[in-house]
Amino acid sequence: MKRLFGDMKMSWLTVILFAVAAGVYTGVMMLIPALADTSFQDIGISYEWWVIFAVIIVVNCGKSWEAMLKCFVFFLISQPMVYLVEILSGSLSFDMGWYYYRSIWLPMTMLTLPGGFIACFCKQQNILGGTVLGLGNTIQAVMALHYFNAAMKSFPHHILSALVCVGSMLIMSFCIQKERKYRLLSLLLPAVLSAVLLVLLKVTGRVI
Questions:
Q1: DSSP state, residue 101
Q2: CA distances from 68 to 61, 136, 170, 191 (A)
Q3: Are 57 and 1 in contact, with CB atoms under 8 Å apart?
Q4: In terms of Cα–Cα distance, which of 23, 136, 179, 171 is closest to 87?
Q5: Which CB contacts under 8 angstroms, 24+ apart, belong to 1-7?
Q6: Dihedral of CA 9/51/149/186: which sign?
Q7: Which of 25, 139, 142, 191 is the most exposed, having the fewest neighbouring CB atoms within 10 Å of its CB?
Q8: 3-state secondary structure of 186
Q9: CB 172 within 8 A of CB 183
Q10: Does residue 80 have a cis bond before it (omega within 30 degrees)?
Q11: CB under 8 Å to 30, separation ≥6 — which residues?
């Protein structure tokens, strides 16, 4: 795990192959009716796995501009690949595939330019690094709450995704941040922000 999060060569070829593999795998998972409304199709609907993939890329880049470009290219290839697999299989029309891509993943792909640049700082062994990693972990924490809520309504659906979110937070914090205080920061920040979110949702009567 430590090698995966910061001790591997993230060449352009690796990024491209990684993107193609992730896109094809996700597209294939979305084609299997028996996997509908389970953790195995969550990768094609939500963000938790893509946050993990993005972190793997950026922490293995030497410079912020490199992390930004490689993260952008990864999403620029992988997300269209998902829809391409579905369109070629006949499970999704071109118009619907293009609609979903331009509405959801194209904006998210563009956000990886500033996001990848900022995310690269998560490997710094200081308050900034712990804070940036904590913000990434916040996405995982919110998604974990969502999946635990879904699992309570239809167990064991989505429980695996909930465990992936929690596990990824712990693994990324312990593998990327070396000092105990910065690991703690990267885990306390999402806990606090998630608690604030839960209070706001309680007040407004909404659910995750």
A1: I
A2: 9, 15, 24, 27
A3: no
A4: 23
A5: 1/171, 1/175, 2/175, 4/56, 4/175, 5/55, 5/56, 5/59, 5/60, 5/171, 5/172, 5/175, 5/176, 6/59, 6/60, 6/123, 6/175, 6/176, 7/60
A6: positive
A7: 191
A8: helix
A9: no
A10: no
A11: 41, 44, 82, 85, 86, 91
Q: Where are the domains of the chain?
A: 1-123, 124-208
Q: How much is the pTM? A: 0.92
Q: Are 127 and 185 in contact (CB under 8 A)?
A: yes
- What lies within 8 Å, CB to CB, of 170 at 6+ separation is 187
Alpha carbon distances (Å) from 27 to 3, 36, 90, 98:
27, 13, 12, 14
pLDDT computed for residue 153 by the predictor? 87
Residue 98 has a pLDDT of 93
Closest to 18 in 3D by CA, of 61, 34, 166: 61
Q: Name the DSSP letter for residue 30.
A: T
Place of tokens 């595939």: 97
Q: Which of the residues in the chain have pLDDT under 50?
A: none
d(CA 190, CA 75): 24
pLDDT recorded at residue 117: 95
